[in-house]
């Protein structure tokens, strides 16, 4: 797994924003003091030495409170406890950095991301939804139709740039966010996890819910499974190894093999969340050995 830039495991003082105010409409207001030299909003003079910047985004504050088991009836109490204990192990070393989930459409970024946010006591955000909000259009499909894919991608990059200064967020990114190198620069301010799901499983999941909300898969004739499978295969080919830039790779095929399953559909989202934390832990250990040999790893 190639790591574009390493993360320091040394506890680092955070200067970014905190989700500091819940607002009644379900959104959260973030604020931070922008240090000198950071680019301000368009039209601002930038002359103050520091200035309070506010960004209001909708999010789902995920506190666990036993919600893991309730979210998924297939989650056993033992699995839920293991998940929480893995999160407790990893949390101090994440040091409030954001977690970005990358992967193809339907790979489970939202499902797994919500669980991770719950056990890490982070807030969950979906970058597609943030793009919709910032453009003022109700769906990604509409943005593609009314504007263009390039317009969507530009706004996606702006959203990721804004998120890159924040903390304590789990972000489900858009499936195509990985294709722009600049987005990696933003996401690498946090920890990135690739959910690697076989195309057949993705096509099955997507066929079950339809392709209407996924403009890059919509519009071809044929049965929903074949249509989704063909388009996903073409996108995967185009994207090549872009997803492999993530710090941690979570391969559903590997988890299934380890657990003696022949089909990844036997894996619960909680199992996948546990493996995600395991892979994050491995990344943090490996990275700290290479980059920071003096760091105390006893807690991991
Ligand atoms: N482990 C799993 N097993 C079976 N179905 C799953 C699993 N994880 C997610 N799903 C289902 O797959 C579909 C896609 O999941 P989800 O929305 O979490 O993916 P996503 O990566 O966020 O997708 P997109 O990028 O298109 O928004 C949903 O219907 C979800 O219920
Ligand atoms: O894989 C992709 O390119 C996309 C995935 C979705 O999450 C949306 O971001 C959009 O439909 C494009």
Automatic annotation (TrEMBL):
<dbReference type="GO" id="GO:0046872">
    <property type="term" value="F:metal ion binding"/>
</dbReference>
<keyword id="KW-0934">Plastid</keyword>
<keyword id="KW-0067">ATP-binding</keyword>
<dbReference type="InterPro" id="IPR031322">
    <property type="entry name" value="Shikimate/glucono_kinase"/>
</dbReference>
<keyword id="KW-0150">Chloroplast</keyword>
<dbReference type="GO" id="GO:0009507">
    <property type="term" value="C:chloroplast"/>
</dbReference>
<comment type="function">
    <text>Catalyzes the specific phosphorylation of the 3-hydroxyl group of shikimic acid using ATP as a cosubstrate.</text>
</comment>
<protein>
    <recommendedName>
        <fullName>shikimate kinase</fullName>
        <ecNumber>2.7.1.71</ecNumber>
    </recommendedName>
</protein>
<comment type="pathway">
    <text>Metabolic intermediate biosynthesis; chorismate biosynthesis; chorismate from D-erythrose 4-phosphate and phosphoenolpyruvate: step 5/7.</text>
</comment>
<dbReference type="InterPro" id="IPR023000">
    <property type="entry name" value="Shikimate_kinase_CS"/>
</dbReference>
<dbReference type="GO" id="GO:0005829">
    <property type="term" value="C:cytosol"/>
</dbReference>
<keyword id="KW-0418">Kinase</keyword>
<keyword id="KW-0808">Transferase</keyword>
<dbReference type="GO" id="GO:0005524">
    <property type="term" value="F:ATP binding"/>
</dbReference>
<dbReference type="Pfam" id="PF01202">
    <property type="entry name" value="SKI"/>
</dbReference>
<keyword id="KW-0460">Magnesium</keyword>
<keyword id="KW-0028">Amino-acid biosynthesis</keyword>
<dbReference type="GO" id="GO:0008652">
    <property type="term" value="P:amino acid biosynthetic process"/>
</dbReference>
<keyword id="KW-0809">Transit peptide</keyword>
<feature type="region of interest" description="Disordered">
    <location>
        <begin position="32"/>
        <end position="51"/>
    </location>
</feature>
<keyword id="KW-0479">Metal-binding</keyword>
<dbReference type="InterPro" id="IPR000623">
    <property type="entry name" value="Shikimate_kinase/TSH1"/>
</dbReference>
<dbReference type="GO" id="GO:0004765">
    <property type="term" value="F:shikimate kinase activity"/>
</dbReference>
<comment type="similarity">
    <text>Belongs to the shikimate kinase family.</text>
</comment>
<keyword id="KW-0057">Aromatic amino acid biosynthesis</keyword>
<dbReference type="GO" id="GO:0009073">
    <property type="term" value="P:aromatic amino acid family biosynthetic process"/>
</dbReference>
<dbReference type="InterPro" id="IPR027417">
    <property type="entry name" value="P-loop_NTPase"/>
</dbReference>
<dbReference type="GO" id="GO:0019632">
    <property type="term" value="P:shikimate metabolic process"/>
</dbReference>
<keyword id="KW-0547">Nucleotide-binding</keyword>
């Amino acid at each position: 797994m190639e790591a574009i830039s390493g993360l320091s495991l040394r506890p680092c003082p955070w200067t970014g924003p905190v989700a500091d105010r819940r607002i009644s409409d379900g959104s959260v207001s973030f604020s931070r003091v922008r240090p000198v030299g950071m680019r301000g909003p368009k039209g601002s003079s930038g002359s103050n030495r520091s200035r309070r910047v506010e960004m209001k985004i909708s999010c789902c504050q995920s506190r666990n409170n036993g919600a893991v088991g309730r979210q998924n009836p297939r989650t056993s109490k033992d699995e839920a406890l293991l998940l929480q204990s893995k999160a407790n192990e990893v949390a101090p070393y994440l040091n409030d950095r954001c977690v970005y989930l990358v992967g193809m459409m339907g790979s489970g970024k939202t499902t797994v991301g919500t669980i991770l946010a719950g056990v890490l006591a982070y807030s969950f955000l979906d970058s597609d939804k943030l793009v919709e909000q910032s453009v003022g259009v109700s769906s990604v499909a509409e943005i593609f139709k009314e504007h263009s894919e390039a317009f969507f991608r530009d706004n996606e990059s702006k959203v990721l740039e804004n998120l890159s200064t924040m903390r304590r967020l789990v972000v489900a990114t858009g499936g195509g966010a990985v294709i722009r190198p600049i987005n990696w620069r933003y996401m690498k301010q946090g920890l990135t996890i690739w959910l690697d799901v076989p195309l057949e499983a993705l096509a099955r999941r997507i066929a079950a819910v339809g392709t209407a909300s996924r403009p890059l898969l919509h519009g071809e004739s044929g049965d929903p499974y074949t249509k989704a499978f063909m388009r996903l295969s073409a996108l995967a080919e185009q994207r090549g190894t872009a997803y492999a830039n993530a710090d941690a790779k979570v391969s559903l095929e590997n988890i299934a093999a380890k657990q003696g399953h022949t089909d990844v559909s036997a894996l619960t989202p909680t199992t996948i969340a546990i493996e995600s934390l395991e892979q994050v832990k491995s990344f943090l250990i490996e990275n700290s050995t290479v980059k920071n040999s003096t760091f105390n790893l006893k807690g991991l």
